[in-house]
Fold these 4 entries.
Entry 1:
Amino acid sequence: MIFFEKNIFEKKMSEITQACSPNDINKEELGLNKPDNLNHQQRKINHQLNSNISISLLNLITSNKLKKNYKEILKKQKNMLFNLKKLPKISVGDFIYRIVYYSKIEDETLISGVIYLDRFCKKQKIVLTEYNIHRLLFISILIAIKFLEDKYFTNIFYSKICGIKTEILNKMEYQFVCGLNFEMYIEKDFFYKYQDLLFNSQE
């Protein structure tokens, strides 16, 4: 896990800001197709971590669905950019696997993405539902990729992974980092506690 010094942190913040500008707009509808540029070696996937994250998120959504005002929550959030009108056919677990498989990210990046997701929802008072989990999860991981990984692809590539138009993906990315108030730094102790929680959550 890389924890940046202040000057490197500011440089990364600048890169994220530039990456959020609405460039490279792809106006075609994109399905869950196989992205290009997959010639380099695939890393080993941590199925335990993927499964634990999936189960934890699904448990949270199930808990939210039991709230008395759940229907009101769905109505309130239905017009959000992160909300889907129809439930996606791909499960959360398979979606996480797809993200990790094609983007080739490290476990630390995936965990950081979940932390960003948690942080964003708390700041914006968003309730995770089966309608917004896919987009919110993907964009949180995408931000973690751009902030932590040494190399990453363009949003055109990532739009093929998540099945979202590049134009919409750019807008979601901008809204997400603004919603975080650009607070992407994660303290070491907090990260390791979160990591332990995810790895031990299903034991």
Entry 2:
Amino acid sequence: MDTVTRRVGRKRGVGHNGNMIHQLPSTQDAWITSFDGTLRSLCTHATAAPPVWVEDVSRVQHATDAPFDAQETRLSATERAESGALMRINHVGEVCAQALYNAQALGARIWCRNEQLARHFEAAGREEGLHLAWTKQRLNDLGDRPSVLNPFWYAGAFAIGLLASRLGEATSLGFVVETERQVEAHLAGHLDRLPVNDTASRAVVAQMKADEARHANDAQKAGAAELPRAVKLVMKAAAKVMTTVAHKI
């Protein structure tokens, strides 16, 4: 990562290579922004999701070339229950993604002092926000509910994101790469398990999978470090606990 990237944000202006340099917010402002993100992730009512869903449904449809079937008329009770459980898991994953990117943006500002990196995390978080809305809408359509443990999942993921950012920019980006790769594999498994007739959920998961792969590649290009194998195994174990619990509650 070059000098301009490392030092970006220290004052407003244009760097010697023509890149815009953004002004870093104060530590207090960074925490306030992060807290606002937390409230938006956990307290936004379901009515906030449909406009995003409607706006982006054509993009989701295009991912699989499948017809959009929001009425669920072709699903049996068993299929509907399985789809609901899988989409609840995916919704929890997106809650965690909001927490991770929020925490890593905060860490980029208060520890790395890198506003460009913080904005990188925020941009990815905004796209994950679409995933959060899509999965919540699918739960509504399927007559199911989010996990009652979402505040717990968010708090845990936020703490992990802060820890990753405290270990430095390369490690923080490396954590993104490994997280997104594991999520991509997890979503591929869901495509195998979702009912064939649930074209809407399958379209959502396919688009999410493509987006997660791109996020991993973007983080890799930004200078991610390879995480130790032991860390990757711990991450997989933690994800297994989350998915097992979220499938039920």
Entry 3:
Amino acid sequence: MRNTVLPLVILLAAAAAGPAAATVIVVPEELDLKTVEPTTVIVSSVWLVNMGDLPVDLLSAKGSCGCTVLEFTSQTLASQAALQVPVRVTAPRTDGRTRNVTVTFTVRDQEPIKLPIRLVTTGVLETTSDIRAEPAEIDLGAVTAGTVISASARLVNTSDIPHRIISARPACSCMKLPDFKPVTLAAGEAVDVHVEIETPSLLGTTSRDITFVLEGRQVFSVPVRMKTTDTRVETLERHFEELYPSTYTFDGFRIDGDVITAIAWEGDRKRPWAIVTCRFNDDGTVRSSFVELIASADSL
């Protein structure tokens, strides 16, 4: 698969100006490759999107381990353009292993872009119901993007024998258990676990698991759910659905004062359709909007 650079053509312009600074984002902001067989090579891809009005230099892309290979070459990404980057990840040889990889994209005059990648190999770890969390999941509800939130869950041994929890494995580096230590729970005993969660910088619904491992290779998971949101996001989605009565989904939301920019995808989500921008009035209504259409490379 080769890199595809997609220039953007202005489809509709209103009074609003585009974002003032050149800013590259990665979409999706993380890759969860789920559960795979050991040694499997998983092929996926992400998009680097220049949301700004100036070209930017993409300097490098590197995985945190040799198991990750990216089809990437240094290049200049034009204003309002998107670059597809194929990613290949090799799963560990061992059963029941979690692999967390970070891909770092280096962009001139911008902070490096971090892309977390996660997968789990099939294995002999058995899910247990002897230990359960109260509540069963940590639901943070609506949260503000880019903040750190504290939460907790109580882990209860519901069996009639002792169990020892030997480790905790958050699904991403965005979650930390600063006080966790291996602990033995007698029958009926409970322990409170404190979690610090860094909310995503982009808007949308996310779910992350914390997997606890027991002595004897049993596991149980506690989901952590949240929705980073802004009421104006729903207004943006309705606004463009009225303008273009087709099936589109939106992600990659970025907020800059009264301006919200997002990536619009066609129904099959094979490629981004457009960058959409809304400028809002103080009462949350749309003042102006424009769309930067992503043209197919074959049609240029």
Entry 4:
Amino acid sequence: MNKPVQMTLNFFASSLCRTLARCLALVCLLLAGIHGHAQTSATPSVTPKMTYTNAEGQEVQETSYDGGAPLHVRFEATTKDLGNYTPLYEWQFTRENSATPILIRYEQTTTYDFLESGNFRVRLLVSFVLNNDTVSYAQEDAFVLNIAESKLEFPNAFTPNGDGINDIFKAKEGYQSIVTFRADVVNRWGKRVAHWSHPADGWDGKSGGSDAPEGAYYLTVTARGADGRNTTSRKPSISCAATMRSANDAEFSGIAHKVYTTYQPASANIGTQMAPHRILLSHRYSTQTLA
């Protein structure tokens, strides 16, 4: 084969190789573009969740809450098909019938302690941003939280005799929305015999590890309700007899005494300070009806 023909063949072979290389590169670019488009073609979405801690310390996931305070709540946004989008979160806290937020949080997951009574709404807004493309999300049904007003009542007698009936002196069932609490019990000489810091706790009638003597003791409670009203009720002294029933159901009227009580009725709001409330302790009888 002569030299000119050989040069011509080499030229065509080199050109063919360069053309194939360019085609291969173009195919790779096309495949990368298709893959990238597949990654970003799905529309991102989000699912808001609300989880609160109930009175038993258990976490409960719900869309609404009706009850007392304090209430610890976690709000979280679970995203899907995020791809290359950047999410911008906005949690709006509002009161019922108000469009103006009282609080805005910008985290994906945020927590809040509800310490005030009232009706609240919490709503999630998200903007998913990718270059000039923005996908907006607005939670259609906001989370609803109805925090009840405070309620706290106490009996005026108990019988720590081990029969399982009224053996512990504590707040009556149904207390709610008590944010801070402290109770102190003193004897007639002013010596403190018991104290506790949660309305679910109470006094077992013991002092220094032994049964406290029967008689009258004074209870002082300092409490603040979720309604936030700082009122002090100072009722006049009330003269009454502690009514008890023994094991054979015979009625027993204890020593008439004055009850210095400033705890509010069920419909009222709890104030900051309750003045001393006189209670009667008896080891012999089972209190059936507590005033």
